[in-house]
Structure formats: structure tokens, C-alpha cells
Amino acid sequence: MLNRVYRLAAPRIVEPVEVPVELTADSVAVRPTHLSICNADVRYYMGRRSPEALAEKLPMALIHEGIGRVAFDSTGQYAPGTRVVMLPNAPTEEDEFIAENYLRTSRFCGSGFDGFMQELCVLPAARVLPLPEGIDLHVAAFTELVSVAVHTVSRFERIAHGRRDVVGVWGDGNVGFITALVLRMRHPEMRILVFGRNSYKLADFTFAETYLTTDAGRAPQVDHAFECCGGDGSTTAIDQIIDKINPEGTIALMGVTENPVPINTRMVLEKGLRVYGSSRSGRADFAETLALYEQHPQMVDYLGALVGTVVPVASIKDIATAFEADARKSMGKTIMEWQM
Amino acid sequence: MGKVYAAILAGGSGTRMGNPDKPKQFWLMADRPVLVHTVEKFCMVDAISQIIVLPPENWLNQTVDIIQNYLPQFADRIAVVAGGAERNDTIMNAIAHIEATAGLEDDDIIVTHDAVRPFVSFRIIEDNIAAAREYGACDTVIPATDTIVHSADGKVITDIPVRSEYYQGQTPQSFNALRLKALFQELAESDRAVLTDACKILVLKGEPVALVQGDVANMKLTYTNDMRIARAMIEGEGEDA
Question: Containing domain of residue B172, as a range?
Fold first, then answer.
């Protein structure tokens, strides 16, 4: 079948391409309905990646956060119309020790391979999961991002020592919000401190204690920490974490940076800290995220606060409107109601 | 809500193509006949109960084979029925087939589409179904880009109409099936021969026909050159493919 794929050919230029796709015995065809824009997509769209990266990756369809309805399932597992979340990670092998999202052989939609900006996404059956009945579709659209936080929290639970009374989250953006929220749902007794630069953003973290980074002296020391800043904020955040963390604590790095970050290794050594990176997620993390939605319906309500601009997209011009809106936002998620 | 049927009109004789013996819907593009690409698109729309493919009578067997070979997983949703002499006769054959098999209800919709428009999008198909349900009939159009020149005698200009009020018709054209049939049957034999466009039957009777926004990519493969353009639109299909 001919499938129309909307590829970014060059910064700000989206071109439709007809791509022949084959429905194999294992594939599910999904009509995307709600696509959520990630900062990584915006960096490509605006041309904020290095010329080498742009030359290597483009043309490519963007978007790795999205949901849709099953149009056809070769395996017969899902009835047409079933609402599903699409998994962007596609492992090509299994490994006893290494998670699918860290295997160098895995393919990732929207980074090196076409993302979800297509008429129809044809995925292996294992790369979709059914959504809970009646879920807010604008929230469900960014389930992938939530699954990334769930993945990190699951790693934290495996890696961190058992004293988890006070945990700090650095970053008052989307990732900080979601990570703090996942911690709150999974660890109701935990004292969660969120450190950020913007009091108007911190005001929305009603389920945690909040501190301006300039006022961090007031905050207690933390047992473990999550860095959710990325970009230019990484350096100062990691510096402050190393200062505020107790010995033998763990630091999860979740923020993406384009440039190397200097780290105070002397204090990392002296305190015996464990620093681990965490990115993307796998099928188990998506399943766990959907289970959390069902166990804690209030989590979906909290996440609803992140839904920013919702743009109905029925033309390439509308795609531009959505990306331009996302580039201007200070926080929240831009959702495309995909009608292409 | 009524059922939705699709009629894929594959009755073109193909004599305008470079190869006069083979209708253009059977030409290969990205390793499959054009017709297969078109039918597959409709198979992916779950609102459509059945897809009726209507080839010329002398291509009936080959069409059945092609559907069986390329789309076995959808065979239970596809019927192959011989087309008629004219476009509207072909549509009536589709309606007659539905009446004879599933039966037609008052609210049932028929989405008619040219087999030689394989680049139709899901959005266009879905908008057709919605518009046919709301208005009883719809036509897929794109705004005219070239200036339209009206000449009654073919020698001098009679008029140059306001372009913004003119559109180019594509397909699908979708209808309340029983309403279309009733109006068609009201036509005199002489009118039937002249009315090559199904929407015009409704327009002449003063019935509303809604506009559905088409797409320049939803091109009709009419001339040999069109196949070259179509291949250029497809990834991996070079000019020499």
C-alpha cells in the first residue's frame, strides 16, 4: 500500500512522500490520531541540531510520542478502531542484561527512522499497547514521555540504596513535573523536593515541596536526585545536586545536552556517588505507565495540566503552526490532532 | 447509522495510455497494479463494510485474480463486479450488487472512487463519509489554479469566470445510495448518456452536493506522463523503475 509520510526535508520544510508499505503477518496498521511534539522534534524542525546531524538524519518524519486507532491488525489481536499507544523503539535483538532502549541495534522512530507523522503507522504487533477505556486522549498522546520517567524511576528503584526518605528533582519543566509525579504515585510517603528557576512553574508542582535554585540553601539534604534540566541548565543543576546530596546517593541524568558538561568529580568521589544516565523506554515501561494510569486516575488529571496548545492538523501549514507554537511555549505539551 | 460501501470504478478502457491494450489501473507501480494500491487504502477504513471493484467486463477474471493474489487478507470485504457502459451505469451496477447481496437501507452511503487515483488519502475518504451522511451527497474538489476560460464556440472567449468560485473535481464522490439510484432512474435515456458525472444528476435536481477538500496529490493517472509523475512521488521508484 502507498502510505503518505510527512518528512522534514530541511529545517521548517515538510514534504509528503508516498512510501510503499507491506502488511506482514505480524504487523498492525495504526491511524495516528494525537501526536505530541517533543523538544527533540523541535530541535530538528528549527535546525538547532549540528549540520552533521541534520545531514545524516534528514529527510525523516518527526514525532515519537503518539496514539492512534487500529485500522488493521494482521494478528487479529486488536479490533479495528481500538485505541492504542505506539511504541517508537523497535529492538532487533534481545539481550539478557541490556534493556531494549539501550541496545545500539534498536531503531527509534523520529531519530534515524521515520517517526509517526504518517497517514498510517505500520508497526510490529508488539509495538502497540491498548489504552485504558475513556482516557484523556490529549494526555495519552504523550504517554511515551511519561514512560521515560517511569523507566528512570524503575531504574532508581533498582540502583539506589534503601534510604529514600528525601529525594530531589531538579528541573521545573515537563520532565521534572512528570518525574516528580511518577515518584509521588509510586512512593506516597517519600518527601519529594523540586528545584527550579521559575516560581510560576514551581507553583504548579502542588504534590511536592518546591524550592527556587537560588534559595536551595533552605532545603534539606537529599538521599537521591534526578536531573531533569538538560541544555544550558545541566551544569549548574548537576553542581547543585552534588552539593545537596548525601553520601552514596544516586543521581539520574535525564536532561539532553548538545555540549559536554563539566562535573565536580572530586565531590562525586568523596561522597561515593553513583551517577547513571537514563533515556527513552521499552515495552515494559509503557505497560507499567498504562497500569499506573489505571491504578491512579488522579495521575492523568495532574498530567492534564501539561496539555498546552492543541492544534488540529489537516495540512502541512497546520504542521508548521503546531511546531511554531511549540517553539514559543515556556512549558507544557503541544498536541497535534492528526487529521492527515 | 447506515452502512458505508465503496465502489472502485475501474472501467477505464485505457486507450489514452501508451499501451492501448491495457487499462491504466492495471499498470504496475511500486510492484503492484495501481488498482491494488487504491483498493488497499479503502480496506484500511473500518467504517467501510464492503469494497466493490468494477472493472470492464473483459477484465473481470484478471481483476478477481489480482485481488486474490495481492489482497488475500481482505478478500472477504472485496467483491468484483463487472462495470457498465458509462460511469453512472457502473455505479448502478455497484448499487444493484449491494441490493442483491446485503440489501440497501435508507441511510446507506456509497463512496465512489476512480481506481486510477491511488494517492487518495484517508482524510479525504473519511471526510467523504461524513459529508455524505450530513448532506446526502458530496464531491471532492481542489480550487482551480489555472484561469478558467469559457468559450462557447471553441474559437473566441465567451467569458472568463471568477477563478475563486471554480474548483476542479476529483473523486471520491459519495452519495446516499438509494437517493442516487432513485434520481438516476428518473432520468430519461437521452439524459443518462449525457450525464457523465454522478454529482451532476443531483445538481440538476436541485439537491445539495457538499464540497470535500481534495488534494493535488490525489491525481488521476490518465496519460503515460502521469505514471512518470506518480513514480516520482513514490520513494524508491526512480524514473527507470
Answer: 4-233
